[in-house]
Amino acid sequence: MSITLKDVEHIANLSRLTLTDDEKVKMTETLGKILNFAGELQELDVANIAPTTHSMPLQNVLREDAARQWLTQDEALSHAPDQSNGQFRVPAVMEG
């Protein structure tokens, strides 16, 4: 499958990207190479290959789920530079 300059311009428009003429040419070449590689992958015979979710044969790699002692609310807030009503106070991140 090949990709044209018009295709790249359409994709850039959908992506709300402004590309220079040089960038459009480069993207046409790059996307063309990606599509060609995807085409090569489509030609591979994978009929006898089992589907996998991971490249390594890993089993559960998570730690044992066990209860642990955590900080109390007072301990957590003891080093807070600013607190109110049992909560950390931080600067506003959104204008009201």
Automatic annotation (TrEMBL):
The keyword 4Fe-4S does not apply. The keyword Disulfide bond does not apply. SUPFAM superfamilies: Glu-tRNAGln amidotransferase C subunit. Pfam families: GatC. GO terms for molecular function: asparaginyl-tRNA synthase (glutamine-hydrolyzing) activity; ATP binding; glutaminyl-tRNA synthase (glutamine-hydrolyzing) activity; transferase activity. It catalyses: L-glutamyl-tRNA(Gln) + L-glutamine + ATP + H2O = L-glutaminyl-tRNA(Gln) + L-glutamate + ADP + phosphate + H(+); L-aspartyl-tRNA(Asn) + L-glutamine + ATP + H2O = L-asparaginyl-tRNA(Asn) + L-glutamate + ADP + phosphate + 2 H(+). Keywords: ATP-binding, Ligase, Nucleotide-binding, Protein biosynthesis, Transferase. Its EC number is 6.3.5.-. One of its GO terms (biological process) is glutaminyl-tRNAGln biosynthesis via transamidation. Transmembrane segments: none annotated. PANTHER family: GLUTAMYL-TRNA(GLN) AMIDOTRANSFERASE SUBUNIT C, MITOCHONDRIAL. Allows the formation of correctly charged Asn-tRNA(Asn) or Gln-tRNA(Gln) through the transamidation of misacylated Asp-tRNA(Asn) or Glu-tRNA(Gln) in organisms which lack either or both of asparaginyl-tRNA or glutaminyl-tRNA synthetases. The reaction takes place in the presence of glutamine and ATP through an activated phospho-Asp-tRNA(Asn) or phospho-Glu-tRNA(Gln). NCBIfam families: gatC. Heterotrimer of A, B and C subunits. Belongs to the GatC family. This is Aspartyl/glutamyl-tRNA(Asn/Gln) amidotransferase subunit C. It comes from Tumebacillus avium. The gene is gatC.
